[in-house]
């Protein structure tokens, strides 16, 4: 999700939240008998309000609102769920001036291959995506519960430092998520010893 899309989502939630708060405050004020709200409601033309659903354009208005809401919701949801692939990162050799394009997807696959060699790691899923406007290498590691977490964390930090050095000044984030298998159940001493009376 890009930063603009995240800002749009927050703006929509803010507007809807304020609208709901306003409706709730209006209803609460009416229920509490606030004079200003009661006077405002008394000015409504009740006959005109009651007659609105009988007008010929009312069903078309409801249908139009429904279609617009569905289209807007589907488009926004598809944008939220779609993760864009980042463009190749270009680095320049300061000595020769040679420009090289690095495919972040291939780089993520290479890093995944190295992490698969770590003891107790079962699988690694890697992909390159754009997260909040920032090119990101996302690595999801599935490992046995007995993995040395401290050693793996050190390896992940070394990997992130190597990636930062490889892409030079380009803004590329590295994201490593470790998922552990459930640990085997080991009976406690109380469970192992039979109860005595």
What does this protein structure show overall?
The protein is α+β, with helices and mostly antiparallel strands. The chain folds into 2 domains: 3-81, no CATH class; 89-180, 2-Layer Sandwich (Alpha-Beta Plaits), CATH 3.30.70. It is built from 7 helices and 5 strands; from the N terminus they run ααααββαββαβα. The chain has helices at 3-31, 35-42, 46-51, 57-81, 104-116, 149-166, 189-192, and strands at 89-92, 99-102, 121-131, 134-143, 173-180. Strands 3-4-5 form a 3-stranded mixed beta sheet, covered by helices on one side. The longest helix is centred in the first third of the chain and has 29 residues, at 3-31.
Secondary-structure map:
Layout: H1 3-31, H2 35-42, H3 46-51, H4 57-81, E1 89-92, E2 99-102, H5 104-116, E3 121-131, E4 134-143, H6 149-166, E5 173-180, H7 189-192
Parallel strand pairs: 4-5
Antiparallel strand pairs: 1-2, 3-4
